[in-house]
Design goal:
- Helix content is about 30%, strand content about 20%.
- The chain is of the alpha/beta class.
- Strand 3 and strand 4 form a beta hairpin.
- Helix 4 crosses helix 5 and helix 5 crosses helix 6.
- The protein is globular.
- It starts with 6 loop residues before the first strand and ends in a 7-residue tail after the last helix.
C-alpha cells in the first residue's frame, strides 16, 4: 500500500448516513441543488485495529467535483450490500493494500504484500451491482485492479519480480504525492482520451501491482512507457474507468487532467430522483 495522502479514521458508519439529503430537508441551509447532488460511495481500508480508514484526498476530490461523499464500510452481508448499491449514485473504488491472488486463481507470490480479505469480498460484491445498474464507477490504484478482477480479469502480484523481459520505471515514486513522475500514453478514441483531451500526459505512481489482463467488456485505454497497463475502461457502460495512478492527489496539486477525470465521473451520474 502506498499512502499519498492523510488517512482519516471513521468512528461509525450507518445506513442513516445514506439518507443525508432527506435528513436535511427543511433546513434553511440546504438548497434544492445541494439536495440533488449525487451520493458517491467511497470504499475504505481497514486500519491496524480494525477501524475503517479512507484517504482525505478522496473525500475532498468528490466534494470539489460536485458530489456528496459517503465512506463505505467493508460489509459482508449480501442484503446490506444490495441496499447500499441501490442508494448510491456512483462508486469510487480507492487505493490500498494488495489483493488476494486466489481470487484470480493464483497462489501467493513472494512479492505479495498485506491483503484485506473482507475488503476484497465487499468490493467484489458491490462493483458488479453498480455495473449492472450502469452507475458510474471510478477505480484508483488498487481500485483498477479489483475492478479488473471483479469482471474476470487478472493482474500481476508484483511487477518487479514477475516482469523480467524489460526494464521497468520507478512505479513507487519517491517524489511528493502531488508530483506527476512519469508519462502515460492514452488510446486515441477511448473515453479516457475524450475526457482528458490528450494522448500523452504525466501521472504520479504508487504501486507494485497492476492489471495484466482486463476483465470482460473492458479494454486497456492507457499504458506507461514501459508497457504496464495504466488505465482500463468499459466498452459496455456509460462510465466505468480504472486508473493506476492517484488523480485525487494530483487534483490537490491543481492538475487539470485529474480535475477533468473527476468532473466526468460526477457528470456521468444520472440525476438523483430521491
Amino acid at each position: 500500500m502506498a499512502v499519498c495522502h492523510k488517512m482519516k479514521k471513521v468512528s461509525s458508519i450507518s445506513f442513516g448516513s445514506l439518507d443525508l439529503r432527506d435528513q436535511k430537508k427543511g433546513r434553511d441551509e440546504t438548497s434544492e441543488v445541494d439536495r440533488l447532488k449525487p451520493l458517491i460511495g467511497i470504499t475504505s481500508s481497514v486500519g491496524k485495529n480494525g477501524e475503517t480508514v479512507v484517504g482525505d484526498a478522496y473525500i475532498k476530490a468528490v466534494l470539489k467535483s460536485g458530489g456528496i461523499p459517503v465512506v463505505l464500510p467493508n460489509l459482508t452481508n449480501e442484503e446490506a450490500i444490495e441496499k447500499l448499491a441501490e442508494k448510491l449514485d456512483g462508486l469510487l473504488v480507492t487505493g490500498g493494500g494488495d489483493i488476494d491472488p486466489t481470487l484470480f486463481n493464483e497462489e501467493p507470490h513472494p512479492g505479495l504484500g498485506e491483503i484485506t480479505p473482507d475488503r476484497d469480498v465487499f468490493e467484489l460484491a458491490i462493483i458488479p451491482k453498480m455495473l449492472k445498474a450502469d452507475k458510474p464507477v471510478l477505480g484508483i490504484c488498487r481500485g483498477v485492479q479489483i475492478l479488473s478482477i471483479a469482471t474476470g480479469g487478472d493482474m500481476y502480484q508484483d511487477v518487479y519480480s514477475q516482469i523480467t523481459d524489460r526494464p521497468l520505471l520507478q512505479h513507487q515514486q519517491k517524489a511528493p504525492r502531488g508530483h506527476a513522475s512519469h508519462y502515460v500514453t492514452v488510446e486515441n478514441g477511448s473515453l479516457l482520451h475524450r475526457i482528458i483531451g490528450l494522448e500523452r500526459f504525466k501521472v504520479n505512481s504508487f504501486h507494485h501491482q497492476t492489471v495484466r489482463r482486463p476483465g470482460r467488456g473492458f479494454r486497456v485505454s492507457a499504458v506507461s512507457s514501459d508497457g504496464l497497463v495504466e488505465a482500463i475502461e468499459s466498452t459496455e457502460h456509460r462510465f466505468a474507468i480504472g486508473v493506476q495512478w492517484h488523480p485525487e492527489c494530483l487534483l490537490e496539486a491543481g492538475d487539470t487532467s485529474a480535475a477533468k477525470l473527476f468532473a466526468a465521473f460526477i457528470l456521468g451520474v444520472s440525476p438523483p430522483t430521491r
